[in-house]
């Protein structure tokens, strides 16, 4: 039996594509192991799947000044030694990395141990962690055609993002039931990622009465952002974070407002949901969500509203426009060719393991 080590963490976006590969890896007969940080979000998600989990020390490498810049390199070095020991013990045939800083010591340790590595880069331009890892990789998969020019030609493979197949098995009636809704109005789903998005949360709540005239609203507000004062508001249902119920919530949804994290928007693409993207601004990120959103807008998959331009007027106008044009958006989403990531990635894994 061949063995694969999966790695990646820090946010759900660095874990869910790995999770999406698990059923196909099991079907192909691979023994699956996971290396992540001691207590990151990936630990809980992976252990719930019954996959053996190995924790290592993890530190973040920053381009800006932070006092932790003095201590985190030592955490990364410790993580490298721990990853090297684990890989030596497990003797995997291949490593698949979804990125995040916990993946850096794992990929570098695999290279040292002569284990083939396949990396997946979700964003339009590679992040710092993957930039460090690319020289050690055998192949680098990516989501966007624009990303190919940022990667070594001999390593780059356009795959799209692996999508969890259970997302396609949702039941609309169950989604409505979970929220206490009926089918009298269309459903607007608002999501800001696993950590939430304060600007989006505030804008939705400030315009709740107006939005509820036309829509029922499912609000995935992020951990710590639940507003109990709004409990009982007819047509409005909050969740800090949705897991098993998410597939049913998607099935019940007609229109989505989201951040522009690469994995989230690839799920919207696969589910063919008309959407409004409000990317994380450059002041709060390296600008990857801005590039992701621009690519999706150019392809006709999304309507983009910049956070700096987010007002009651622009929000309500965007929602009305996308809902009115929803059939055109759905047709464009159906024509996308970026929905075959899992078989392409599985072929690469089989080839190099």
3D architecture notes:
With 353 residues, the chain is an alpha/beta fold. It folds into 2 domains: 3-161 and 339-352, Glycogen Phosphorylase B (Rossmann fold, 3-Layer(aba) Sandwich); 166-334, 3-Layer(aba) Sandwich (Rossmann fold), CATH 3.40.50.2000. It has helices at 16-27, 41-47, 72-90, 103-112, 128-133, 172-179, 198-206, 208-212, 246-252, 262-271, 288-299, 312-324, 326-334, 341-352, and strands spanning 3-7, 31-37, 53-56, 94-97, 117-121, 139-142, 156-158, 187-191, 216-220, 236-239, 255-258, 275-277, 303-304. Strands 3-2-1-4-5-6-7 form a 7-stranded parallel beta sheet, sandwiched between helices. Strands 10-9-8-11-12-13 form a 6-stranded parallel beta sheet, sandwiched between helices. Helix 4 (103-112) links the parallel strand 4 and strand 5. UDP-N-acetyl-alpha-D-glucosamine binds at residues 11-13, 164, 194, 289. Residues 4-140 form the Glycosyltransferase family 28 N-terminal domain. Its EC number is 2.4.1.227.
Q: What can be said about this structure in brief?
A:
The chain has 14 helices and 13 strands. Helix content is about 40%, strand content about 15%. The model has no long low-confidence stretch (mean pLDDT about 90).
Major sheet size, sense and barrel closure: 7 strands, parallel
The percentage of residues in β strands lies in 15-25%
Query: What would CATH call the class of the largest domain?
Result: Alpha Beta
Q: How many beta strands in the DSSP annotation?
A: 13
What's the gyration radius in Å? 20 Å
Report the CATH architecture of the largest domain: 3-Layer(aba) Sandwich
CATH domain fold name of the largest domain = Rossmann fold
């Amino acid at each position: 039996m061949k063995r694969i080590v999966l790695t990646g963490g820090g946010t759900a976006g660095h874990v869910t594509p790995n999770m999406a590969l698990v059923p196909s890896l099991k079907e192909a007969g691979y023994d699956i192991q996971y290396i992540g940080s001691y207590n990151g979000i990936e630990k809980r998600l992976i252990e719930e799947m019954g996959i053996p989990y190995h924790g290592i020390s993890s530190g973040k490498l920053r381009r800006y000044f932070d006092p932790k810049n003095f201590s985190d390199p030592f955490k990364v070095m410790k993580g490298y030694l721990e990853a090297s020991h684990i890989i030596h013990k497990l003797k995997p045939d291949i490593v698949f990395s979804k990125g995040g800083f916990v993946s850096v010591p794992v990929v570098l340790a695999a290279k040292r141990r002569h284990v083939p590595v396949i990396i997946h880069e979700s964003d339009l331009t590679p992040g710092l962690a993957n930039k460090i890892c690319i020289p050690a990789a055998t192949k680098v998969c990516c989501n966007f055609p624009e990303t190919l020019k940022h990667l070594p030609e001999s390593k780059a493979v356009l795959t799209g993002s692996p999508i969890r197949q259970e997302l396609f098995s949702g039941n609309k009636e169950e989604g409505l039931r979970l929220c206490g809704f009926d089918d009298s109005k269309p459903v607007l789903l608002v999501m800001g990622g696993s950590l939430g998005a304060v600007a989006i949360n505030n804008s939705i709540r400030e315009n709740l009465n107006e939005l509820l005239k036309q829509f029922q609203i499912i609000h995935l507000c992020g951990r710590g952002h639940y507003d109990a004062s709004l409990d009982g508001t007819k047509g409005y249902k909050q969740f800090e974070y949705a897991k098993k119920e998410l597939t049913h919530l998607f099935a019940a949804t007609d229109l989505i407002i989201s951040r522009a994290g690469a994995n989230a928007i690839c799920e919207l693409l696969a589910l063919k949901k008309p959407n409004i993207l409000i990317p994380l601004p450059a002041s709060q990120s390296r600008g990857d969500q801005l590039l992701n959103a621009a690519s999706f807008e150019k392809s006709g998959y999304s309507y983009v509203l910049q956070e700096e331009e987010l007002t009651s007027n622009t929000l309500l106008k965007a929602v009305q426009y996308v809902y009115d044009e929803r059939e055109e958006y759905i047709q464009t989403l159906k024509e996308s060719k970026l929905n075959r990531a899992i078989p392409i990635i599985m072929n690469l894994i089989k080839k190099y393991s």
